[in-house]
Specification:
DUF5753; Cro/C1-type_HTH; Helix-turn-helix transcriptional regulator
Length: about 290
């Protein structure tokens, strides 16, 4: 569940405010870096929220931007302090996609397209274990269990009775046909998917093979939106060694339009439930044989 102080979101908000102050001053990131004798990349990372911001950084930047209102400076200093606190995920140690978890924890809605697997928030424990073991064959049991535990903890956003995450998932038929683990495991996973799709805040649509080429052929992505209108939406693209976060309005708009096309080409909600249930029966029939 979302905490009162989310360090990832605090860093984003603080970075956006620092960028606004710089632009009001009419300075480039390069000019600010020269004044503070730091690299331009540091200023960029501070502004995009990818780097922890110290109170000293805030003080120095406010000095460069000639911010005279002490209330503004004090507010930014407090945001810097909050941004250095640890979110719940830090208790699990080093998590490669911790930035994404921080964003997801505070998001109001999530739209995801998955071409290969069932989305993480909709996975059963057994499916998650088999999937992670197969995807990371060189990982030890401890690391796999940690990743599974983090995934299950993330799912609390779906089960939150007061402030559930509004989730819309478009899933390619390949994810349902790809047998992760045994046939019984897959049947249970698909039945779980149908059950979750009946929740008012969870919408699932399947994109069948017969649709042919579609806007999602380039791969998985997710769009996160936040309750505070000052927080810009984020497009998240997962990579093997690094992830990509797109926040420019034009980029978010393009991916949003692409998602609307995916939704339009996918089976509707009721057709999707029937389709998934039919494939689940195929796994049952296979067991009987």
């Amino acid at each position: 569940m979302a905490s009162n102080v989310n360090p990832t979101v605090r860093r984003r908000r603080l970075g956006q405010e620092l960028r606004r102050l710089r632009e009001l001053k009419g300075m480039t990131a390069e000019e600010v870096a020269e004044r503070l004798l730091v690299s331009q990349s540091k200023i960029s990372r501070l502004e995009n929220g990818r780097r922890s911001i110290s109170q000293r950084d805030v003080r120095d930047l406010c000095g460069v931007y000639e911010v005279e209102d002490h209330r503004i400076v004090d507010s930014l200093m407090q945001m810097a302090k909050d941004s250095r606190q640890q979110g719940w995920w830090h208790a699990f140690g080093d998590i490669p996609y911790s930035v994404y978890i921080g964003l997801e924890t505070d998001a109001a809605s999530l739209r995801v397209y998955e071409p290969q697997v069932v989305p993480g928030l909709l996975q059963t424990r057994q499916y998650a274990e088999a999937l992670i073991s197969g995807a990371l064959p060189e990982s030890g049991t401890t690391d796999i269990e940690k990743r599974v535990s983090v995934r299950l903890r993330r799912q609390e956003r779906i089960r939150d009775a007061e402030h559930p995450l509004r989730m819309w998932a478009v899933i390619d038929e390949a994810a349902l046909r790809r047998q992760v683990g045994g046939r019984q495991l897959m049947r249970e996973q698909l039945e779980h998917l149908v059950e979750l799709s009946q929740q008012p805040h969870v919408t699932v649509q399947v994109l069948p093979f017969e649709m042919g080429a579609h806007p999602g052929v380039n791969g998985q992505y997710a769009i996160l939106e936040f309750p505070d209108t000052s927080d810009s939406s984020v497009v998240y693209i997962e990579g093997v060694t690094s992830d990509l976060y797109l926040e420019k309005a034009n980029d978010v708009q393009k991916y949003s339009v692409m998602y609307e096309h995916l939704r339009a080409q996918a089976l509707n909600v009721e057709q999707t439930r029937q389709f998934i249930a039919s494939i689940a029966k195929d796994y049952t029939a296979g067991d009987a044989a």
